[in-house]
Amino acid sequence: MKKTRSYILYILLATTIIGCTTQKPANTVKVKTGAEVLIEKHLPELAGKRVGLFMNPTARVGNTHVLDTLLALDTNITALFAPEHGFRGDVGAGESIKSGIDSASGLPVHSLYSGGKILKPAPEVLQNLDIILFDMQDVGARFYTYNVSMKRLLVAAADAGTEVWILDRPNPAGGDYVAGWVLEDQYRSAVGDYPIPVAHGLTLGELALMAIGEGWLETDNTVNLKIIEMEGWKRSYKWPETGLPWFPPSPNLPHFDNAYAYLGTCFFEGTTLSEGRGTDNPFLIMGAPTTNINSDDLTLLGEKYGVKLDTVTFTPISMPGKAPNPKHKDAKSHGVQISSLSNNAKTLTDPVKFGVELMHLMMQATPDAEYREFLKKLAGTDQILTDTEPTSWGASYTDYVEKRTSYLIYK
Fold it and tell me: Cβ atoms within 10 A of the Cβ of 43, count?
């Protein structure tokens, strides 16, 4: 017997409630994502519309990708758009995405990431769409390419007259945590294109509202934007408190632990030290073959930020699709490992400041270590080279914190 629309909806929502087999949520609090709210309350608004999806593997309703969910509910999906790592998330960091056909659905996929550049959707593609649904799990960091992809989409859609719906999701670091230098204009890049701090404390829906309200979009046209808000999310929640399963937003952030530490340990990408790519714990393991760190210094730093740090020996290896050519590949390296964070969502009190201090400590402990120009793009300033123990993020940070209050959706 052919399943009816209501029966399919029942199955999909039941899957959402049951959850999935990836990293188990820490408690029973359940946040309802924008994608779930879309399915429950907004499907009739998509009837008769030509719909495009700008998504990656984190766009889920329970175990099911939003694409598959919407196709099962007879939504007229006509185009897919792929960010860094691809629509299905099987491409490594920085690798170009190829346009083509999604093998599971047969729909055309348009690449919006190539050669390290974030691209705008083509006008002729957008003009054949009525609505684009944008749904990707962010990590709360300015230097994550998904928020830049969202900006490019908003500009292109405004110019083409296409409506954009953002299906909102939690900021894993919480909506109250704001830290880091505000991006200076000369350091704008594919890993930073808004004048915001490293940890911005916004959902992507809120960031979109702020980008429009503050005039950060390079267009004079009106953005036709609708945000499908979450239900049940509080700004104080870090990821373990949401009750949601973790789907890796990129291959080297397999768990919340990695993503939370990443807010600060990503700075290691701007040095010759390994950030842990090519291991099972990227951004939780850092070091180099010549690192000789003092364990007492690690203990003091860990106590300062409420996290346990241990010395470790590791060997980065090639991991196709995840870390094909990591720093110090096949070389025995020494450094530090950050202990598990998930047992307590409040552990690691300030990951950005912690990352800055840990990076400088390990640079001093590694005689041949060097800073790279990329570090300034990550930090958004050259102050990271001299401000080894930040006590203030400056006047632009204070200005940002005041302005952002006008764009907050959630309490």
Answer: 15
CA angle 234, 240, 246 (to 5 degrees): 110
Six token digits for residue 286: 């850092």
Sheet holding 77-82, edge to edge: 100-101, 108-111, 77-82, 51-55, 131-135, 163-167, 225-228
Handedness of CA 358, 359, 361, 365 (dihedral sign): positive
Fold exhibited by the domain 27-241: Rossmann fold (3.40.50)
**Residue ranges matching CATH 3.40.50.12170 in the chain:** 27-241
CA distances to 299, 340, 361, 364, 384 from 388, in Å:
18, 25, 9, 11, 7
Token pair listed for 162: 């296409």
In the three-class reduction of DSSP (H, G, I as helix; E, B as strand; rest coil), residue 55 is classed as strand
Structure tokens at 56: 């990656």
Distance CA 350, CA 355 (A): 9
Q: Are 169 and 177 in contact (CB under 8 A)?
A: no
Pairing relation of β-strands 51-55 and 60-61? unpaired
**Cα–Cα distance between 216 and 239 in angstroms, integer?**
28
Indicate the pTM of the whole model.
0.90
Identify whether the C-beta of residue 150 lies closer than 8 Å to the C-beta of residue 210: no
Q: pLDDT (tens digit, 9 = 90+) per residue, 344-358?
A: 545 799 999 999 999
Q: 227: which strand partners?
A: 166
Q: Which fold has domain 256-380?
A: Aspartate Aminotransferase, domain 1 (3.90.1150)
CB distance 305 to 389 below 8 Å:
no
Q: Are 335 and 365 in contact (CB under 8 A)?
A: no
Instruction: Compute the distance between CA of residue 378 and CA of residue 366 in angstroms, rounded to an integer.
Output: 21
Secondary structure (3-state) at 70: helix
- Using one digit for the tens of pLDDT, what is the confidence trace for 103-147? 778 898 888 877 667 778 899 999 999 999 999 999 999 999 899
Residues 322-381: tens digit of each pLDDT: 899 999 999 999 999 998 675 554 579 999 999 999 999 999 999 999 999 999 999 999
